[in-house]
Design a protein that fits this description.
Immunoglobulin-like, 2 domains, five-stranded mixed beta sheet, 6% helix, elongated, PKD domain-containing protein, signal, PKD_dom_sf
């Protein structure tokens, strides 16, 4: 069986604002109550949410924790997802119920050596990471063999590896259920992380969250309320360049904030941004937004909640 998954690891598919902060027409804590959906699960990192997604997929297939109690024929499961802390790596999630003398391994489609995996993997998932030297399309395969006989195989085709043009954070992984929301202490994607001030959660709403939320063409990232400043940094602490991003109010009709860049040489750069429309406004930065160690989206005005999407970055 072959599945196809496309990952866009790198590009895995300024006006001044003088308003004073005001209370929006609806409560500021729109995302805190999550009256719509399944309760708004909270995760410490994106990797934790991705693993929960894999476990849910296994349970749907009847291939969950206790294989011996399920009466299933021996089989192997493979899922491949991006490593959120990296811009060139994928993570294979493998589970097998074949018993000895069957052995299983993963091949990565780039000519590198195969990686052995446990079988049977009763009650757990085997995870293996792999980095690709160049961007391309690769077919990853898990095969289980009994001597020279292949007894089980699964394949996934992905686009992965580092592109020289940089990355675009689109917040579409992992997918959020319709009209639901997910919270993170740190959202990680393609080697970058977004986190809130004061250990406050970062919000990943579905594109159709509801409760006054303006529907979006894809999943965005959002601040919890006006008291939370979103911060962006490279996970490896390397300096980066901010090229562009989209932003809009999450609930109200207007939102603004101060964009601040903290440079590796100790200098800072700021821009006051405002969007008086519910549609996304694309902000394209000039060449001064480089050599950055951290960027903040703070001092919110207008609507308490804003959404960000399509953040274009490079190192």
């Amino acid at each position: 069986m072959k599945k196809y998954v496309a990952f866009a690891f790198l590009t895995l598919s300024l006006a001044a604002c003088s308003q004073q902060a005001v209370q929006p027409a609806q409560p500021a804590a729109q995302f805190r109550t999550t009256p719509i959906g399944q309760g708004g699960q909270t995760y410490s990192t994106t990797s934790e949410a991705l693993e929960a997604q894999v476990i849910a997929d296994l349970n749907r297939r009847g291939f969950g924790d206790t294989l011996s109690a399920q009466g299933l024929a021996p089989q192997v499961y493979l899922n491949v997802l991006p490593v959120p802390t990296s811009d060139d790596s994928v993570r294979a999630y493998v589970k097998s119920s074949f018993a000895s003398p069957v052995t299983c391994s993963v091949t990565w489609g780039d000519g590198s050596a195969s990686t052995s995996v446990a079988s049977p993997t009763v009650g757990r998932i085997e995870t293996k990471d792999h980095a690709y030297a160049t961007f391309g399309t690769y077919t990853i395969t898990t095969s289980c063999v009994n001597g020279a006989t292949v007894v089980g195989t699964q394949s996934v085709t992905v686009q992965a590896g580092k592109k020289v043009t940089g990355v675009t954070l689109n917040f579409d992984t992992p997918p959020v259920a319709s009209r639901d929301v997910r919270f993170y202490q740190s959202y990680q994607e393609q080697g970058y992380q977004i986190y809130g001030t004061g250990n406050q959660d970062v919000v990943q709403p579905s594109k159709d969250f509801g409760n006054g939320f303006h529907p979006r063409p894809s999943q965005p990232i959002a601040n919890l309320d006006a008291s939370v400043t979103l911060q962006l940094a490279s996970i490896d602490q390397a300096p980066f360049t901010l090229k562009s991003f989209d932003f809009a109010p999450a609930f109200g009709n207007e939102v603004g904030f101060t964009l601040t860049g903290y440079k590796a040489d100790g200098n800072t750069i700021t821009a006051s941004l405002d969007n008086p429309d519910v549609a996304y406004k694309t902000i394209t930065l000039d060449s001064s937004w480089t050599n950055l160690k951290r960027v903040t989206f703070g001092n919110v005005t207008g609507s308490a909640n804003y959404v960000l999407d399509n953040i274009s970055l490079s190192k």
